[in-house]
Amino acid sequence: MSENRPLIEVKDLKEYFNINTGMFRSKPLKAVDGVSFAIKKGETLGLVGESGCGKTTVGRTLLHLYKPTGGEIRYNGKLIKTNADIKEFRKKATMVFQDPYSSLNPRMTVSDIIGEPLDVHKLVKGKKERQERILELMGYVGLNSEHAARYAHEFSGGQRQRIGIARSLAVNPDFIVCDEPVSALDVSIQAQVINMFDELQEKLGLTYLFIAHDLLVVRHISDRIAVMYLGRMVELAPAAEIYDRPLHPYSKSLLSAVPVPDPKVARANKRIVLTGDIPSPLNAPSGCPFRTRCQYACDKCAESMPPFEEVSTGHFVACHCLAEIN
Amino acid sequence: MALLEVKNLQTSFFTDAGEVKAVNDVSFTLDRGKVLGIVGESGSGKSVTAYSIMQILAGTGKIIGGSVKLDGQELVGAGEKVMKTVRGNKISIIFQDPMTSLNPTYTIGRQLMEAIMLHTNRNKKQAYERAVEMLRLVNINEPEKRMKQYPFEHSGGMRQRVMIAMALACEPDILIADEPTTALDVTIQAQILELMGTLQEELGMAIIMITHDLGVVAQMCDEVVVMYAGSICEQGTADEIFYNPKHEYTKGLMRSIPTADTAGKKLKPITGTPIDLLNMPKGCPFAPRCDNAMKICISHCAERMQINEDHAAACWMNVKAGLDSGEIVIDEEGGDSHE
Predict the structure, then answer these.
(1) Which residues of chain B lie closer than 8 angstroms to A263, CB-CB?
(2) Which long-range contacts (CB under 8 A, 24 or more apart) does A235-240 make?
(3) Segment B73-132, tens digit of pLDDT
(4) Using CB atoms, which residue from A217, A219, A254 is nearest to B187?
(5) What is the ipTM of this complex?
């Protein structure tokens, strides 16, 4: 395998859900509509956007938790298509879910929760090896052996998220989709879990797709950041660049809307406040999805979807009016 | 005179497992037209403080001590009759979750008009006009059409606007906002915060902003109260709290937030997990998680100490710093005094 080949390659990924709009009638809801990106080994790609923009769906479709409507997913260059491919792929790619309260089975002990992937993929032989592996995994995430026999409800949110992370590490994955893993946690616990993601990445050489709406967290953890709006990717760039020099009008307003924990900066901050709400993906606007809330929108934006183009090295934007705006 | 004066407020929940001291000796004042932020993690007692002021505690909760004075009038023990004239008229509250705080079976208009007719002596027609006017005030397009719609026909941001319209309809002196933007997206959060800021200036009301988001505090608040495990650990002006924190917990919180400077580096989080309010330690509640905890922290809780005229904190580290620098000398009776 060449060094430069990305670990995960997604090309023109589409995920449509059929929504009943009346008796015998349905309409496709385009949750993800032609998203392409690649993630290199050991890299963290942050995925941000408002609720309903399709970021979680990208993560889930990527792992074939939803069957993709269209597009290609490649792992290490190999196309994931058949059920056998998917099963193999899931040994290498796992997920950490947002809600540590509903993503753990309340009737299973911690050791069973963490051990389940080992059983499913038949990764251990015998009870002793299984138990050893479970304890090793618990050690990775800072849980004690005495926690193994307890149930999820006996733990706080932060500890539950640790259990969820240990479960996702059980199959020895290369790639983890982290779907808002810290948004349900308090600030002090959030920082502990973020550090843990950092440490695990260094220790185990993991690659992350880090989905979050907290832009401060994403900036901290990501190497590159992708911004989504209504099922499309509107901008993708290295983390520092997108914060210092966002090009798409949506990225600009999203970043300016982040409350900065510094009173002097916050008072001086000129926020670009967007008017209105995100349109329903069932009635997405023609052309550029952002045009209904964009102050720079022109006729061209209504006619066609702007192409997702590289404007400088590694910096991709989809906007017709880049020249006028910047 | 301060508009709202909370003094030594104590609220407990009497559960089967024992007494939970959710609010423990909390004191602060709020002046007319100011924005006070109450920050803390879940379980720190910030919401219960607000509910105690409004006296809308759940069944097992009870105010067991202290006083809440509104414009000089004592509210603790004043009775339901007085509280009914306070709630909605003088103090209003908006809750965190705009999805569940509106009744799904009534139209927006009916709910708004109900609140207006209950608190003022407007008739139905006047209440309707007032409701439309309020919706316009919170930047809702086509208010007449919206009046006839149900909550499910509105997005989260719209519903929170409706809640704000309802809370402000009777021109309260104080608006308590309990995590008003936590359930919303950042761009919508920016809209709501901006709206609250302009309305606060226009109407001259005071706001108590309860939040766990220090970014929201930095943007909105004049003064800040930091709570941990039911007690105030630090309070002061926003600038003092952010640029000169004097309690180990506040310092830890500030270090926990990722910023531009922390990218690629490790955060320095507070270790451990929040305390169990049923098993409170004898000394400082933060001592078990504090890196700099000293012997005295474990045995004695620090009293509130004035750092300067805009700033107070309850942390022994300040005494230690004072002793080290010679600012505080211990007199012969063993007490300490500032020079």
Answers:
(1) 218-219, 238-239, 242-243
(2) A235/A315, A235/A316, A235/A317, A235/A318, A236/A37, A236/A308, A236/A315, A236/A316, A237/A314, A237/A315, A237/A316, A238/A314, A238/A315, A239/A46, A239/B263, A240/B263
(3) 999 998 899 999 999 889 999 988 877 889 999 999 999 999 999 888 899 999 999 999
(4) A254
(5) 0.81
